[in-house]
Amino acid sequence: MNQCTFLGRLTRDPEIRYSSGADQIPIARFTLAVDRWKKKDGESEADFFPCVAFDKKAEFAEKYLYCGIRVLVSGSMKNNNYTNKAGEKVYGVELQANHIDFADGKRDEEDLPEDVQAPPTQNAQASGKTGGTASPSKTSATGNNEGKSSSARASAPNQQGTAPSRTAAGRSSAGRTSSTRRTGNRFSNMPESVEDANNPFN
């Protein structure tokens, strides 16, 4: 089974050519740099694989791929043997790309295809949530607050009117407290008619 998947970065922009004949199918060729495991010293090496894409995939590569972008390419390895101008036989192997996927996450909005719409921003969502129906609830809340404030102001005179009665009650209780003598081992309750001058405990 001949199935390969490579994750790497393009070393150059795709090279686009067209096949000879009436159809003139587009052909895109690019080189993919795939990192190896890092060495003990932290340095990493890479292997370079030539890739080729045909027809729609070639048009996709021409439009969206560029030098340095990281992509996931799946396909099969094919022999690319030919004879050069000097008559020498050249042997090579290249990956025929069947699937090309982006590996860098979300792309910029201007890089999206025309039939793909970018998601709305958070500011637009926030403005949509705060508009329209939010104002009546705020108005009703304000009206309730004003109603509570007016009722509180209306009840304020009643509270002020009852304040003297409580003050009088406080004075009467204070009078009762002053008329009560301290009790204990040395003091007892004395009638109010006894004058302080005749009190033997003074």
UniProtKB/TrEMBL annotation:
Residues 107-202 are annotated as: Disordered. CDD domains: SSB_OBF. Keywords: DNA-binding. Residues 119-161 have a biased composition (Polar residues). GO terms for cellular component: nucleoid. InterPro entries: NA-bd_OB-fold, Primosome_PriB/ssb, ssDNA-bd. GO terms for biological process: DNA replication. One of its GO terms (molecular function) is single-stranded DNA binding. Residues 162-182 have a biased composition (Low complexity). The keyword DNA-binding applies. Homotetramer. HAMAP family: SSB. This is Single-stranded DNA-binding protein. It comes from Hungatella hathewayi.
